Amino acid sequence: MTLKLNDVTVSRGVGPVISNVTLEVTPGEVTTVVGPNGAGKTSLLESLSGVIGISGGSIELDGVDISKMSRRRRSHAGLAHVQQGRMIFPSLTVKENLQLTASTKADMDGALALFPELEKRLDSATVLLSGGEQQMVVLARAFAAKPKYLLLDEMSLGLAPVVFLRLIPIIEQIAKTGVGVLLVEQFAHLALKIASDSLVITSGHVSYHGPADALLKDPDLLKKAYLG
Ligand SMILES: Nc1ncnc2c1ncn2[C@@H]1O[C@H](COP(=O)(O)OP(=O)(O)OP(=O)(O)O)[C@@H](O)[C@H]1O
Question: Boundaries of each ABC transporter domain copy (predicted)?
Answer without folding.
Answer: 3-228
